[in-house]
Amino acid sequence: MISGLATPFKSFTQHFSSIDLSYNDLTGSVPDVLATLPKLKSLNISGNKLKGPIPQSLKDKSDHGSLLLSFDENQTSCQRDPCEGNSKKFIVPVVVSIIAAVALVILLSVLFIFHRKRKRKQTEVVNNTTASNKEGFLKSKNQPFTYSEIVTITANFKTGIGEGGFGKVFHGHLNDGTPVAVKLLSSSSKQGYKEFQAEAQSLMIVHHKNLVSLIGYCKEDDHMALVYEFMSNGNLRQHLFCMDDATNTTVLNWNQRLQIAVDAAQGLDYLHNGCKPPIVHRDLKPSNILLSENMQAKIADFGLSRAFSTDTSTSSISTALAGTPGYIDPELHASGTLNKKSDVYSFGIILFELITGLPVQIKNTEHIMHIVDWVTPMIEEGDIGKIIDPRLGNDFDVNAAWKAVEIAMLCAQRTSKQRPDISQVIAGLKECIGRNDQNVQSEMTSLEMASYSFTLPKAR
């Protein structure tokens, strides 16, 4: 039996350099197989009830200094002297003890690896959550807001910040404190919205730096709402025409106006040329151009003409979706065909408002005049001073101003074929900014006036 146990014992323990079997109440004799372990440098068998001699092989290793041998002389009756005994009573508990020790090491290793993997996974979840918060706390399109959440977000619709064709807009906060704007659909606007949920979900994945992000939506029974990122500086209309408002006391300077125009054009370009299928806004106007804390312009309410699909019998909603008087493409009235150039016309009107500081419908003592009708004779007179917003004084570049007027007039042509693509408008407006910054004269690049029938005065 001793020889049968010694062989697997040697194979199992051949890599051990130190064995500590002290105070295990082991009985029997010390097996000489321990001396055959090639890497064994230390052996402690003290504190046991061993009998018999210390094997000569272990004694020799200890004497030569290659093995540190520890034993309890008081409990070992034979010590190093020869006496009779049976090593099989010792070798079995030794093997069991070593196996138990190895098993414990393996168990601890497995637990350590499992702990590290779990900790790494938790760290990844935390990092992903933090990244999601930094990017705008966007909820999954498969997790719409409930109406109770909408009530909580808006503190029971405590603070109204606006009202549009679809209902009132309320200021609110998400659970993490991030401000949002909640557009609650009015009770008169809840009929015929067959495609609301599908379109709202599709709009949530439309992202551009010059588009207001749609964070989520609510569609629960008769309750419908849209949750947008909050734009702290309100809308362009407030900054251009509501100067009696205590919150808008600063006049937009010329460079700010050009940059707002570029921002809005870039957002429109993404809707027209970056989305598949293209999205036509259909109701572009200053109140739908919102301004962030650093005055970056973003287009709001894009895609609502598709998101709020209506029945033909709901005339009030259909009228709202057709656009706002003064900004509506005149060709749309005649043909009823909506296309990207309809938005370009609306943009041209907004650009005229930025240039002149006047609203689309100009009131005088006799009648109301459309801004294009008002500006056209001014252009023919060739006096840019009469066109530019007088609140700007002389703080603008004349050449840049003329070019901006030319771009606005091209966008506001009566037929869509005569209007440029919005990508061309962006190039022209950036040239305006370059002229304004450098105060140098350059030739027109992307918009050649010769290709259009409308004649404008040259820059002066």
Polypeptide structure, described:
Pfam families: LRR_1 (PF00560), PK_Tyr_Ser-Thr (PF07714). Keywords: ATP-binding, Kinase, Leucine-rich repeat, Membrane, Nucleotide-binding, Phosphoprotein, Receptor, Repeat, Serine/threonine-protein kinase, Transferase, Transmembrane, Transmembrane helix. Belongs to the protein kinase superfamily. GO terms for molecular function: ATP binding; protein serine/threonine kinase activity. ATP binds at residue 183. This protein has 460 residues and is an alpha/beta fold. The protein has three domains: 2-106, no CATH class; 138-230, Phosphorylase Kinase, domain 1, CATH 3.30.200; 234-451, Transferase(Phosphotransferase), domain 1, CATH 1.10.510. The protein contains 14 helices and 14 strands. The chain has helices at 2-13, 56-64, 88-134, 147-153, 196-203, 236-241, 254-274, 304-307, 315-321, 330-335, 340-356, 371-381, 398-411, 422-438; strands spanning 18-20, 27-28, 42-44, 49-50, 68-70, 159-164, 167-173, 179-185, 214-220, 223-229, 289-291, 297-299, 361-363, 368-370. The strands form five sheets. It has a five-stranded antiparallel beta sheet with strand order 6-7-8-10-9, with helices on both faces. A hairpin with a 5-residue loop joins β7 (167-173) and β8. α1 (2-13) packs parallel to α3, α7 runs antiparallel to α11 (340-356) and α11 packs antiparallel against α13. The protein is elongated. The termini are far apart. Residues 1-6, 74-85, 128-142, 309-321 and 440-460 have low confidence and may be disordered.
